[in-house]
Prior knowledge:
alpha/beta; four-stranded parallel beta sheet
Amino acid sequence: xxxxxxxxxxxxxxxxxxxxxxxxxxxxxxxxxxxxxxxxxxxxxxxxxxxxxxxxxxxxxxxxxxxxxxxxxxxxxxxxxxxxxxxxxxxxxxxxxxxxxxxxxxxxxxxxxxxxxxxxxxxxxxxxxxxxxxxxxxxxxxxxxxxxxxxxxxxxxxxxxxxxxxxx
Length: 168
């Protein structure tokens, strides 16, 4: 079953959000009293630091699991009051792009596997010829991660949050 990415509006900004903000958050399911999760989710409730690469890596790994992920609004925008500007910042945009990949790529309707050893972490989703693969190498290799998505719309590869910031 395809994993879902939720948004918990801890800052209560969605009630007054404009259409642009709602459009940017389209790949997240807003939590309501009716939202029910069968499994315990991964809750991401802190804004990652750009000074600490592992913070963003935690987001990447979480978004490639088969577990529901819940973002708090404060984890996406921090303490910013201009929500639209905060959602356009590279780190937040990269996170939202991961949510879009998770929501729409056909591989997430397939089989999920992961393994970890001295060479790093390998996470893979496969559905026929559609594949999403994440490799987080041993930190001594100097590469943060390699995320590959293959499917009917082409083959893509990202190696940093800056590359994930691009429109796709």
